[in-house]
Amino acid sequence: MLPYGRQSIDDDDIAAVVETLRGDWLTIGPQVAAFEKDLEAWTDGVGVAVVSNGTAALHTAYAAAGIRPGDEVVTSPMTFVATASTAIAQGATVVFADTEDDTANLDPAAAQAAVTGRTKVIAAIDYAGHPAEYDELRKVADNAGALLLADAAHAIGSTYRGRAVGSLADLTTFSFFPTKNLTTAEGGAVAALDPVILDRARKFRSIGMVREQDRLRHPDVGGWHQEVHEFGLNYRLPDVLCALGRSQLKRLGGFKSRRTELVARYHELLADVPGLRLPVQRAWVDPAWHLYPVRVLDGRRREVFDRMRAAGIGVQVNYIPVYWHPVFEDLGYRRGMCPNAERFYAEELSLPLFPALTDADQDRVVAALHEILG
């Protein structure tokens, strides 16, 4: 089965992990701080805290933003469920706003309409690696007195108007799952413009533990003493996985270039396939494409999905609108709230896209689509 996405691991990655395994540190050690510093080269220098996975990154970001019961988070339903569920874990109410028809990203006008006096965070998603409209969303967030969060699980390496994803919102979260643009096996990160919020994120990912002498409430107990001032969770990313991430980062530029080449080939080879709508790219963004999401028209998405899978091509659907999940239905959310997102879901199909995908593999995908839809 040709997968829709997969990791790209080379001998340098393996050597980096082996070297760390032979050292003194497996969990929190020198590779953690080094990986965080390396990541700053991709966030225009914005500080980063690495965590155990992308869901942990979102939970950590909401906690660092001070989300509490009674607060509201405005976000898009066209995302993985964790963008919303981790806000609910902090006691927030999630308010879903509709997406743009072409990019499937959060529509700034819809976000504006969803804002209330309780809005604490507006969370955009860089769907498929294409950055959201951050200048417009910044205006919405600032007018609401809310923080702007970028769920950039798909988008490390992308830029918007010449600025790196990671520097565009008050908080940005990344995922390093194997199908993403770089991997640490499991892993994620939080970038924060405000050093105070970044410090809160680092404490939250480490069980809330405080060890610095000048921060202790009872500093004279002894050298072993540590304190918890606010509750946190164990979302630490181990040294051995940070070593893998540091090695992967050296190839992120190459990964992005190959994904861009494959997207351009898909655009060319699929341009004349009937009943297929191809993804767009706005002139002011430079995406690090994570997905190649086509739209299958005329109600044929299920047929195309089944026939592609039967042909050994592992297409995928990204994503079920979040509030369609039964857990959200049980909270009172109903279908029909975000018609653009729901139409997008009804047609969306992610084609295989990863750096090791060969031209021959891609030709096979294209030929199958021509056969089904041509």
UniProtKB/TrEMBL annotation:
<dbReference type="GO" id="GO:0030170">
    <property type="term" value="F:pyridoxal phosphate binding"/>
</dbReference>
<dbReference type="InterPro" id="IPR015422">
    <property type="entry name" value="PyrdxlP-dep_Trfase_small"/>
</dbReference>
<keyword id="KW-0808">Transferase</keyword>
<dbReference type="GO" id="GO:0102933">
    <property type="term" value="F:GDP-4-dehydro-6-deoxy-D-mannose-4-aminotransferase activity"/>
</dbReference>
<dbReference type="Pfam" id="PF01041">
    <property type="entry name" value="DegT_DnrJ_EryC1"/>
</dbReference>
<dbReference type="GO" id="GO:0000271">
    <property type="term" value="P:polysaccharide biosynthetic process"/>
</dbReference>
<comment type="similarity">
    <text>Belongs to the DegT/DnrJ/EryC1 family.</text>
</comment>
<feature type="modified residue" description="N6-(pyridoxal phosphate)lysine">
    <location>
        <position position="180"/>
    </location>
</feature>
<dbReference type="InterPro" id="IPR000653">
    <property type="entry name" value="DegT/StrS_aminotransferase"/>
</dbReference>
<dbReference type="InterPro" id="IPR015424">
    <property type="entry name" value="PyrdxlP-dep_Trfase"/>
</dbReference>
<keyword id="KW-0032">Aminotransferase</keyword>
<protein>
    <submittedName>
        <fullName>Perosamine synthetase</fullName>
        <ecNumber>2.6.1.102</ecNumber>
    </submittedName>
</protein>
<keyword id="KW-0663">Pyridoxal phosphate</keyword>
<dbReference type="InterPro" id="IPR015421">
    <property type="entry name" value="PyrdxlP-dep_Trfase_major"/>
</dbReference>
<feature type="active site" description="Proton acceptor">
    <location>
        <position position="180"/>
    </location>
</feature>
